[in-house]
Amino acid sequence: MYTLSCRECGGNLRRSKRRFIDRLRYLEAYRCQGCGARYHVTLSSRLRLARYAKCPKCRYQDITAMKRIDKIDRMRGGIFNLIHRMLGGQLYHCWFCRLQFYDLRPRRTNVKWSDDWLKGGNKQQMFREL
Fold this sequence. Notes:
Elements: E1 13-15, H1 20-25, E2 28-32, E3 38-41, H2 43-49, E4 64-66, E5 74-75, H3 79-86, E6 90-94, E7 99-103, H4 116-119, H5 123-126
């Protein structure tokens, strides 16, 4: 998995504890190890990114659609994978972590390697600095 980087200084972002009021407003909180800047992930930004299928382990969106199960790479277990399979979901493969999984959502096209699962595109709506 890759590390998230700060927009201010380029340092690594780590999960930080949310205050009580922040727990009601934000899903996740991150703090930069270099400069101490705080970033928050809102529910609206997470729902905007939920339109497309992504790897359940590494959240990478550059996945490939498969026609049949590969016997070498492992298959994602769990109840949600079973439900997606029973409802006719597409079989996807993440080449980054070599995981196969079923998902009902479509695959995103033209994906670039970035922090899209956190930033979502519009920085003002995704993050609110303290």
